[in-house]
Amino acid sequence: MPEPKAKILVIDDEEAICRNCEKILTRSNYEIKWALNGYKAMEMMYKEAFDLVITDLKMNSMGGLEVLSRVKDEWPQTQVVVITGYASVSSAVEVMKTGAFDYLPKPFTPDELRGAVRQALAPEELFNNAKPDVKKISRKITTHQLVGDSPQMQGVIRMLAKAAPTDTNVLIYGESGTGKEVIARAIHANSRRKGEVFFAVDCGALAENLLQSELFGHTKGAFTGAVKDKKGIFELADGGTVFLDEVSSISMSIQSNLLRFLETREVLPVGGAAPVKVDVRLVFATNQDLKEMVSQGKLREDFYYRIMVYPIFTPPLRERRADILPIAYHFLDLFSHSMSKDIRSFSPDAAEILLDHSWPGNVRQLRNAIERAVILCEGRTITARELEHLQDKPGEEHHQAAYTITHDYQVPANAEELKEAKKIIRQLAVEQVERDFLTQALENADGNITRAAEQAGMQRSNFSNLMKKHGVRAVKK
């Protein structure tokens, strides 16, 4: 049976606009209906479900903002694209903060309209074959840090959709804080394994012998403290997915064991004699240049080629600025709800600060900034005052964040919060070391980047990328 067409409702008080949209979108195999005012549109939506609403902003009878607000309140899964002939920055911010998926100024071309519609409906394509209960869970996962319709993120979503149905090894690489674990969870949630377990392992947080035991298990008496047999994560995850984060930190000996596991799919517990066959899908992640690690002898070449089957690059937030506000509003909704506050928007000045910031810590830093702003906010709108720490010089917000975490943080209440706190503190510590390393290397080289990289034993491109990441500039003496 053919898949059902997506149903779209067009709302505009000019009949010519409605008919033109219908003509454009019907050719793209969508089912189109239209209404000349918001009240009629609401009547239609109470009678049947729509996947997408396209509404004019300025209408004589129930304006587009009220339509948008009603739709998001009563049909939150329905996407909304706002069109208007009165385009301005303030109106764009207003509709985006109210929950619109996109904002399309008039006049628009047929390709622009089709593109906006295609992007608004794209997330649904990942879940067409999902069961209702799984669909709800999957949507929550994939809309987390994958929020955004920038070309970069749409590319990630397309690659994710292709990889998910397979059992191919996937390597997710990119800077820290770009959402690699979220993508791994989305791959699992859209795979045939979605009903099975998902294990996330932070390889950089475990000592070599502990990581070996955690992954492969051990038998009683295998080492001091092994008082009973213990199944490893690979065995416990049989049928599911294991996500190995910070794979670059794995020792050469464990790389060898993992290589053997990738070839045989057999687990040999520490101290064991008989291997156990398991069916596990592996997803890897790193923020390091693995090819460079191979050339330095820190990563086995055969292991590199085994995990580099299907690489997915997670773009840094500074390279997809169109996604900053949608992600910020996502976190605003999340934290406002969890803190029982009624904060609904960002002021234009606050939105400008968010868009202008370089976000060296990427989405994780943005999440922390919004959480802090929600805590500080006493009204219904986040203002520049709650985001003033983002206006510091490059790198200064990290010093402040480090002080907040090490001195003013709340004691973790459970193991999950402890894990997250440790991860943040480790990241902040690493970032501080990297900045000090760059500053000293540049100082020793009198501000000459090429010489600084050479003396530090790095490729100039990698050295320059690290400078950009931390906002460090070369000052020649």
From TrEMBL:
Superkingdom of this protein's organism: Bacteria
Gene3D superfamilies attached to this UniProt entry: 1.10.8.60, 3.40.50.2300, Homeodomain-like (1.10.10.60), P-loop containing nucleotide triphosphate hydrolases (3.40.50.300)
Residues in coiled coil: none
A single MF term (Gene Ontology): ATP binding
InterPro entries referenced in this protein's UniProt entry, alphabetically: AAA+_ATPase, AAA_lid_NorR, CheY-like_superfamily, Homeodomain-like_sf, HTH_Fis, P-loop_NTPase, Sig_transdc_resp-reg_receiver, Sigma_54_int
Pfam families in the cross-refs: AAA_lid_14 (PF25601), HTH_8 (PF02954), Response_reg (PF00072), Sigma54_activat (PF00158)
All residue ranges annotated as the Sigma-54 factor interaction domain in the record: 146-375
GO biological process: phosphorelay signal transduction system; regulation of DNA-templated transcription
Domain Response regulatory residue range list: 7-121
Presence of the UniProt keyword DNA-binding in the record: yes
UniProt keyword terms in alphabetical order: ATP-binding, DNA-binding, Nucleotide-binding, Phosphoprotein, Transcription, Transcription regulation
Positions carrying 4-aspartylphosphate: 56
Name the record gives this protein: Two-component, sigma54 specific, transcriptional regulator, Fis family
Taxonomic source organism: Desulfatibacillum aliphaticivorans
